[in-house]
Design brief:
The chain has 188 residues and is α+β, with helices and mostly antiparallel strands. It contains 5 helices and 6 strands.
Length: 188
């Protein structure tokens, strides 16, 4: 790979990671098939917030799989993200349930049928939870630098680490195998 291509990949990789972190959000629990809900999470019909970390992770997984209805139940208004975003940001612009849902929706636009499943049981220790996931979806087009044809199936992996405070997630660290995704998208 020549230097120019390698330098472009270094610029694209953080952006791809941010887009994929959506997939990374494969919180915990088991595989769940969910019908996507409306993108707005400002609803008056919230279910009681899950206080059990494993239940919260199950809801987290459903959130990343497109069910946004319970986001306010598990996401603190002070929620912040630590990840490289497509715009070059560090994730600090993603705030609260509405910000997270908007970010996930943007990611799912390129991979509408994206499904996260757990590779192993989640780890919960004190006020932190971590989950290793696999995301699989069909590329719909529009990913910056990608030359793969729409309809290409992609699979990538990652780890989500979350901090819990007062029964809600307040911080999120994403580590996703962006190179794996970029290779499948034939990104240049």
């Amino acid at each position: 790979m020549n230097i120019a291509v390698r330098n472009r990949m270094r610029l694209i990789a953080p952006a791809a990671l941010a887009a994929l972190t959506v997939g990374a959000t494969t919180a915990a629990a088991h595989t769940s098939t969910v019908t996507p809900a409306a993108h707005s999470v400002t609803s008056q019909h919230h279910r009681p917030a899950a206080k059990n970390p494993k239940s919260m992770l199950d809801t987290w997984l459903r959130l990343w799989n497109g069910d946004y209805t319970q986001a306010p139940d598990i996401i603190s208004p002070d929620f912040k993200v630590h990840a490289a975003l497509l715009d070059g940001g560090d994730g600090s612009s993603v705030r609260g349930a509405d910000g997270l849902v908007a970010w996930i929706s943007q990611t799912r636009a390129a991979f509408p049928d994206l499904r996260f499943t757990l590779q192993i049981d989640p780890l919960v220790a004190g006020h932190r939870a971590s989950v290793r996931w696999t995301a699989t979806g069909t590329y719909a087009g529009g990913f910056p630098g990608a030359t793969a044809q729409p309809g290409t199936t992609v699979t990538f992996t990652g780890t989500d680490t979350l901090r819990i405070k007062d029964g809600k997630f307040v911080e999120y660290w994403l580590n996703s195998d962006t190179l794996q995704l970029l290779n499948q998208l034939h990104a240049r």
